[in-house]
Design brief:
alpha/beta; seven-stranded mixed sheet; two-stranded antiparallel ribbon; 6 helices; 28% helix; globular; disordered N terminus
């Protein structure tokens, strides 16, 4: 497996991945997710987290500031309420890594989730992406009760990693789709033309 971070030519440290979190007013969910990111087996000093604020009317930044010391590379970008696809595309544009991990603001991660996704992509350089296994808990606030699958592989944007080069090659997410499930399936359909998207059963989100 390659090193957790690499040195760019101009001398700065490149994060091992960029975690992109679209959010609109879900402050309690965002706080739970950020807390789970501080507990990852991959140190939070090695990845960046971009909260993509989709026109929230609730104050998001105070909650983000509480986690700044634990997640040094944490920042917030804001746009008008244009939808999650536009928020995710904003995150892709500002990503400073070769891999992005899309996470919904209302999920939490098992402590090895990020490590397993990155390790799997390192071991499969031809893959375009790697999907976490989503475990729907009883009384979960997740907006889906069944996995979104195509050919047996989950493509749900709630917890999935993609190579930035392939996301940019296919033009990112289609902002005409307002439904997150449709966004995920459409993106995967295009990305699969460039490489496989594998499911990583040991990378768990819930």
């Amino acid at each position: 497996m390659k090193s957790a971070t690499t040195i760019k030519q101009h001398g700065s440290i490149e994060p091992c991945c960029s975690v992109l979190i679209p959010v609109s007013n879900d402050v309690p969910g965002l706080r739970k997710l950020l807390s789970s990111l501080t507990r990852q087996s991959r140190s939070a000093t090695q990845f960046e987290v971009i909260v993509c604020d989709d026109g929230s009317t609730e104050p998001i930044r105070p909650s983000i500031s509480e986690y700044q010391s634990a997640i040094p590379n944490l920042r917030c970008l804001r746009q008008d309420n244009l939808g999650q696809a536009a928020a995710r595309n904003m995150g892709i544009i500002h990503s400073q890594s070769d891999v992005v991990i899309f996470l919904d603001s209302n999920i939490e991660l098992d402590l090895n989730c990020i490590e397993r996704l990155l390790q799997t992509l390192d071991e499969n350089p031809s893959w375009s992406g790697a999907s976490a296994r989503i475990v729907v808990q009883p009384n979960s606030s997740l907006p889906f009760g069944k996995k979104n699958e195509s050919n047996g592989i989950e493509f749900n944007l709630a917890a999935i990693a993609y190579r930035v080069r392939d996301l940019r090659a296919v033009g990112g997410l289609d902002e005409h789709f307002r439904n997150s499930s449709r966004q995920g399936i459409d993106l995967a359909r295009r990305a699969l033309l460039l490489g496989e998207i594998g499911r990583v059963s040991s990378a768990i989100a819930f």
